[in-house]
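so my prof wants the structure for this chain in the C-alpha cells format not the other one, which i didnt know existed until like an hour ago. anyway here's the sequence
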Amino acid sequence: MKARVFRFLLALACGVAGAYGILALGQATPEADAGKPLQVPEGFIDELVTGGLLAPRAMAFAPDGRILLLERGTNSTDDINYASVRVFKNGQLLPTRALSVETCGDSERGLLGIALDPAFASNGYVYLYYTRRGPTPPVCGFNTATNGVDGPRNRVSRFTMTGDTIDPGTERVLLDNVITDIGYHNAGDMAFGADGYLYIAIGEGGIAPLAQSLTTLNGKVLRIRPTESGSPPYYSTAGNPYDTQAGAVYCGTLPLMTVNGATGACRETYAHGLRNPFRFTIRPGTSEAWVADVGGGVWEEINVIAAGANYGYPVREGPCPGGVLCDPSTQPAHPPFADPLYAYPHLAVYANFDSAVIGGAFYSGTTWPAEYHGDFFFADFARGFIQQLSYNGATQSWDAVEPEFATDGVGIVGLKEGLDHNLYYLAYLSDQRTSELRRIRRLGQGENVPPFANAAVSPTGGPLNTVFNFSAADSADPDGNLPLTYTWNFGDGSTVVTNVLTVTHTYTSAGPKSVSLTARDSANPPITSEASTLTVYPGNNPPTATIVLTNTTAPGRANYYMHDTWQYGVANASDDTALPMNAISWEIVFHHQTHHHPFVPYVQDVGGSFEIHVEEPDPVQWYRIILRVRDQQGQETTIYRDIMPVVATGQITTQPAGGFVLIDGITRTTPYTLTRIVDYDVSIQAPALQGIANFPREFDHWTSAQPGGYQFGMPPGGWSDSAVYVTVPPERRFELPMIAR
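here's what i got, hopefully its the right format
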C-alpha cells in the first residue's frame, strides 16, 4: 500500500448523494435542528442539560455530581488543535476550562476519551486519551522520510484535578505509541472495571490487518492497572492473556520496552479483532466491558469482551464473513472468533454509510418502570435511534425491545447513565457551537412536558429597510396542549406575543441582533419551552467570495484519482467593509454515501492543499470543500464545491468458472465485478487450493502472469484478470488437507 501523506486536515462528515463527474457549487446547510428533542416513550422527557459545547467528545460523572466534558473546538477557537476539558457544576457550564490540550485534531483525532480514577474523590486522578503531536514536522502529518514512525500517536495520560482545574504539569504519560497514520478509527473510550483495571478501546486506525496483529495496540481492548512506580511502564498488565507469553512486549511504551530484544505480543492486549470500538461501558458491579464496534459495510455489533477473545475483524463482521450479509441461523461455529452478543445489519447492505453503533449504558436505578431494570441501551449515530436490549431467560439471549426506545437523534456520540440513574447523551450537531449534553428523564406523576420552539428567519441580513420573515414552524408540544403561544424577542427592545407561526419585523438601527423564540403551551398551569435563538444583521449585506480549486497532480482534470493533490483558494472575497484578518475559514469533508463520522476540523487561512488519500473501497464518495467568510459583524456566508471521483471497474473470473478469490482480504465468488476509484490500491489473492465444479483444484497461474497474490492501482480504463486452476489428479489427492479433497 502506498504511503499516505497528510497535507491538510481531513475530516469525515455527513453528506448527500451526488452524481459522478460533476463539480458542484452551493450553500452548506445545517443537517439537524439544534437542540430538538428525541421522540421518547410516554412518561419520559428529553431535556437540555447544557449547550454551547465546542464539538463534544466524551463525558465522565464525578462522585460529587460534577460532569466532566471533552470538547473539540470550532473555528471560533484560536487553534485548530485546541481541545479542552469542561466542567458542568451546580447547573451550569463553568466558563473557565479545566484543561486545554494541544492535540492533532484533524480527521477523527483529538481529545477522545476520559475516565476518572476509582479513588477520584481522594486523589483527583483524571485519565485522558488524546492524539499527541509527532516530534518532527509535519507534527500532525505522515512523514514519508520515516514512513510515519515519528508521526502523531494516540496516548493515555493521567492528570491530577484540584478543585475545578487540572494542572497540565501533572501529566504522566501511561501508554503511548497507538498508530494513527490514517487519522480515523482511533476509538479512545476508557473505563475502570471492578477489578481496578483501566479498560481502553482502540480502533484499527484505518488499517484493517492491525486488528488481527498481536504486535500492535490497534483494533484491541487493552487492560492496564495504573501504578505509582517511579519508572515506566506506569502500569501493570498482570493477568492479561499475553502478559507471560514468551517474547511479550510492553507495546504502550516509546521506545518499546522489550526483554532481550523480544518483539512478541503486546502485554496490554485483553482482546482483539475489533474495527472501531468507539464507545463502551462496564456492566455495573463487574469488570465486563460491553463494546459497541462500529462496522464496515454490513454489520454493527455489541461484544461482551472476554480475556483473549478474537472478534474477527476484518475476516468476520457480525455473524458473517467480512463484508457479507448472511442468515445467522445458517452459519456454523466460528472458532477462533468470538460471536457478538448482538448484531444488526445496515439498512443498505454492502455499503458503509448508514449505520454507526454508539454504546452504551445499563439502567441500574429503580425509578424507571420495571421493564427497564438491568437493560442495556445503545445508540446509532447515523440512524438516530436509541435501542434497548433486554435479557430473555428462555433463550438466554439479549434481544432488542421493539419499538426502539427513542428516535430522531442523529448525531449521538456518547450515551451514559448518570448518577441520578437517567440516560445522558452528547448530541454532536452540524453547527458545533450549539452541541449539547442532554438527558432522558422519567417524568414525575402528572408532570407536564415542555413544548419545543424552533426559530427560523429569511433573509439573515440586508439593507436597513429589509423585512425579516420569522417563522416558528416545526415548533411542537409532545403533550398536545395546543394552541401554542409564541413570544419573539427581536433583540432591539421589541417583542411580539402571538399564536400564529409567522411574523415580520423591520429594524431601525443597524448591527447584529440576537433574536429568541419561546413557546408556551395551553396546560393549566402552562409551561414554557427552552429558547431557540438566532442572529440577524440589519444594515449589513453578507460577504461574498468564490472558491478556486486546482488539481495540481493533473491540471485540467476536474475529477479525482486516488493520491491526487488539490489546491484550494479564495477569490473575490468582499464585503460592505474591509474583511477582518481571520475572515476566511475552510473545512474539507470526505463524503461517503450518506455516512458521516463525528469529527469535523476547521482551518483559518487563505488557502492550502490536500491529498486524496482516504482509501474507502465504496466508490460512492466525494470531497466537499467548504468556505466560510465571516465579516466584522459576525455574519457568515458559506459556500462549497464538491470534487467527484473517476471510477473504473475490474472483472475477476476463475477457470473453471465459479471459484473464489480474496479481494482486499474478503472472499468473493467469481465472476466478480470490482468497482473502485482510479488508482485505488487493490489486493488480490488466488487460494492455492479450492474445490471448483466438484473437483479439487490447485492454482496454476493468472492470465496476467502476476504471482498468486499481488497488488495494483485501479487503472483508468478498467482491468480484468482470471485465475486458472488445474484439477488435482487422483493419485495426489491424499496429499491434500481433508477440506480440499
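also thought this was worth mentioning. Helices lie at 120-123.
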